[in-house]
């Protein structure tokens, strides 16, 4: 892994800032007057909430969604009060080996956020699917006492991360994606086999509570509100998991709903929404009924099935997102909403699930040229019209 020294802080002056300001001012056709002092986070705070984004580390000058990219940093500093690392706290980045750690990239993100007065989420202390393990962990030999060896490995990781960052991280995705969507059961991995699925989860959360008693502890999963058979199985599995936490006294504070929402078909957005909102609200009602808070941890819109025409597609994405956010913001248990990136050019969706017409995905608030899109307005308007909940402040 090629890790540079501390990134250089770029100036925000000159033609770059002027060009970006002009682009921001251009979006004034809604309640979100982007050229004013308002921002997405400012609108969020009016209802007692906060807005933030994932961010990446990169070398200065790299064309990435990074604070070292001055155009991107300008957007982060304008619209966000929360940051979460896109990758830099995952085991593939921080654990080059079973006894070694590397935090240089995440350290740089935390330092940047601290200087800007932004809060930081920790994503993630463990990502459960084997395909996202570092190579050494995929085939790791836990020896003749696998339970004790696996427990020691996990406890060491949680303690090392939490002690290093202390109160600079206010919220952790302690475990990410532990439920297998196709079965609704805890994923079968070499780690869960060594310890046991429930025991693995309980160990992670109890250790995180002991090491970071100030932090919000989140179970985070790849969920959104679309309807198909696997989504239904996944929801039931997550509810079963959350019920188990409560029965066993596992210290889980919130459900992180990733919210990579998907336009799976063309047609009127109202008809698409109608299929999802009833079952999804019943699911969320069950979650909050168990006493959990909510976090939207990774919001974006997958527009793979939307029309090629940009005007039509942007309107469809914005309307779909607004309907989803309106539903979610009706819950007082939801305080923080984080986008999984702010600019289309750097969206993970372009590589993960490309469109058949080969055009760039348009599922983040800003287009590839750093100009706000109708989705930006939709997010701001959802915050502006959201009920103010004292319990969310």
UniProtKB/TrEMBL annotation:
Pfam families: Glyco_hydro_10 (PF00331)
GH10 domain sequence ranges: 61-382
InterPro entries: GH (IPR017853), GH10 (IPR044846), GH10_dom (IPR001000)
Keywords: Carbohydrate metabolism, Glycosidase, Hydrolase, Polysaccharide degradation, Signal, Xylan degradation
The keyword rRNA processing belongs to this UniProt entry's keyword annotation: no
EC number: 3.2.1.8
Record family assignment: Belongs to the glycosyl hydrolase 10 (cellulase F) family.
Name of this protein: Beta-xylanase
Species: Sphingomonas daechungensis
């Amino acid at each position: 892994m090629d890790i540079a020294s501390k990134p250089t802080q770029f100036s925000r002056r000159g033609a770059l800032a002027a060009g970006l300001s002009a682009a921001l001012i251009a979006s004034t056709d809604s309640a979100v007057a982007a050229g004013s002092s308002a921002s997405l986070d400012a609108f969020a705070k009016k209802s007692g909430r906060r807005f933030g984004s994932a961010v990446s580390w990169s070398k200065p000058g790299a064309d990435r969604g990074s604070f070292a990219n001055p155009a991107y940093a300008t957007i982060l500093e304008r619209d966000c009060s929360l940051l979460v690392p896109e990758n830099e706290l995952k085991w593939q980045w921080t654990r080059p080996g079973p006894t070694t750690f590397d935090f240089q990239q995440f350290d740089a993100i935390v330092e940047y956020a601290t200087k800007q007065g932004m809060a930081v989420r920790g994503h993630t202390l463990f990502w459960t699917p084997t395909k996202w393990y570092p190579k050494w962990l995929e085939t790791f030999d836990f020896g003749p006492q696998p339970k004790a060896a696996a427990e020691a490995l996990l406890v060491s990781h949680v303690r090392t991360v939490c002690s290093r960052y202390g109160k600079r991280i206010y919220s952790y995705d302690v475990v990410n994606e532990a439920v297998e969507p196709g079965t609704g059961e805890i994923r079968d991995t070499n780690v869960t086999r060594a310890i046991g699925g429930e025991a693995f989860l309980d160990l992670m959360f109890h250790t995180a509570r002991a090491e970071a008693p100030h932090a919000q502890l989140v179970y985070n999963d790849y969920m959104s509100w679309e309807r198909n058979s696997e989504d239904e199985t996944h929801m039931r599995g997550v509810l079963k998991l959350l019920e188990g936490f409560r029965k066993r006294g596992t210290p889980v504070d919130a459900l992180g709903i990733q919210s990579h929402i998907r336009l799976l078909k063309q047609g009127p957005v109202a008809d698409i929404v109608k299929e999802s909102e009833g079952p999804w609200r019943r699911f969320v009602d069950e979650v909050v009924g168990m006493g959990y808070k909510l976090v939207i941890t990774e919001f974006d819109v997958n527009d793979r099935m939307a029309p090629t025409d940009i005007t039509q597609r942007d309107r469809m994405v914005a309307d779909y997102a607004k309907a989803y956010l309106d539903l979610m913001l009706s819950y007082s248990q939801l305080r923080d909403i984080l986008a999984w990136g702010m600019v289309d050019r750097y969206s993970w969706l372009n590589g993960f699930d490309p469109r058949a017409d080969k055009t760039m995905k348009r599922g983040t608030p800003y287009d590839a040229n750093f100009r706000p899109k109708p989705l930006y307005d939709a997010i701001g308007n959802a915050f502006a019209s959201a009920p103010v909940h004292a319990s969310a402040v």
